[in-house]
Amino acid sequence: MRIGIDLGGMSAKLGLVNEKNEIVGKLVIPTRLDVPAREMIHDMAEAVKKLAGEYGLQTEELEGIGIGSPGTVDQKTGSILYSNNFSWEDVPILSILKEYLGPIPMDIANDADAAALGEVCAGAAKGAKNAILLTLGTGVGGGVVLDGKIFRGGVTGGCELGHMAIVENGQLCTCGRRGCLEAYASASALLRMARKAAAEHPESVMNEMCGGDLEKMNGKIPFDAAAAGDAAGYQVVEEYENHLAFGIANLINIFRPEMVILGGGVAAQKENLTAPLQKKTECMCFGGRHGQIAPIVTSCLGNDAGIIGAANLIEI
Amino acid sequence: MRIGIDLGGMSAKLGLVNEKNEIVGKLVIPTRLDVPAREMIHDMAEAVKKLAGEYGLQTEELEGIGIGSPGTVDQKTGSILYSNNFSWEDVPILSILKEYLGPIPMDIANDADAAALGEVCAGAAKGAKNAILLTLGTGVGGGVVLDGKIFRGGVTGGCELGHMAIVENGQLCTCGRRGCLEAYASASALLRMARKAAAEHPESVMNEMCGGDLEKMNGKIPFDAAAAGDAAGYQVVEEYENHLAFGIANLINIFRPEMVILGGGVAAQKENLTAPLQKKTECMCFGGRHGQIAPIVTSCLGNDAGIIGAANLIEI
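The joint structure predicted for all components is written out below.
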């Protein structure tokens, strides 16, 4: 049994994961941002002991503990180098955890990477060895699994798929660069485009759907409007999908995954999103009939992907 | 001693490579495109025997033979799946070579990948373990080395860095897609831009530099014109470098290499090209001071990179 921890800005979700990649027990603790990192890590250690104990396990009986963390992590030193969410810098989380829990196997990865691994081990890409996960949420997170292992790039800080730019001199991204995929394919970008279109088209049903208050726009509305035959809604969805397909085709040309998995809020659209995306993407992939073009699917593990992926950082 | 073979559309260049990654002997044979693949592979086998023989080696004394080939190769089956240059399809080159040479270790990679490995083993990125090579020639070839090994992506046909697109609905690329890096950063693209600018600006010194015949435009002229203070030439170089920097920043965000190496015709500009590129690229890389930004350098092995890289497909 391994424990996978999905560390987030709000909570740390711990799961006890068996050899079939089933989560047999869960424990969620709040992420305390107002205390030094060491105290929060102590909370995590106590939670590990508690979760293991509930299943009659001593900590040293665990096969290992894996952590998926936001931000930039350094696997070699077991550290979180930097995370927006916690304002942590250079926190050697694994060695601190080992002080509390003893020398059991531990590993750490970026949370999007861990979620990608989770989907490969037990989710939408089960059976594949090579897959890319893009999470379409506040930002665009990316995780790549190649030959069953997380692709981490060269030196620390790679695999920022959301910060592959697709438009020269385009929209300003949160990272400071212009034109990033994140600035066009995140849920936030979809909302920006939908609000603009609704404001420019007072006749659009999107205005009605958000009760006349554009602040109440959500990622479902443009898709619903498009399905109802609303021209402005259709245009928003079309534009959003064109940008996303452009980015996905780039990633297929670079990584040649067996599957592309979409997660995050926008992925709730399922085939509504993936069917047109697949068509748009195919004609942009290199090699035509000589190239294998990955099916685009939506994630199926939801929040559990991060836990299962984190647990699978530990080889059993 | 290993033999590295750089297979090209015009010739196959064989090199006998020692453990210090020095080429101690070379042999070049023409690539015969008018005969069945098997005959050309027989020529290669004979050339291997001849080159080894010149240094007193029996074929079976070789530690191995590595091949860098244009097109899409399948390492698992040792085949060239498809190559524009030869009109070959599904040619099991390694098993045919073994028929002629016996069961010595052999491996195959794409030629740009092999050149990247060569530069890491003995060239511009010697000492690094992670590097990207972009060749700026007729097209834009790309090779990635991670942890000292060629990055091959997931399923066959990945790592087409030149076909990462950077402009939506942009220039038509030879691959059929619009907006590829290749359509903006190849030597061919530079010539296209220079010819257009020269035609639009009769006062530009670029017209004089190509003797009034735009067909005689070459990749050096816009750089020379820019250095001489020609506004149109400066604009061409600036635009070319902006596109290239945009693509390089994407690759840094994805792969986080320790070095980016530029090869091919345009790389003859050396610091003239790399110094402004470095500045343009830096402000587009994710993570600012938290991220390691690779130095951009030009290749230093020239044609030998492919031979040395091919030889290094064989582990000794």
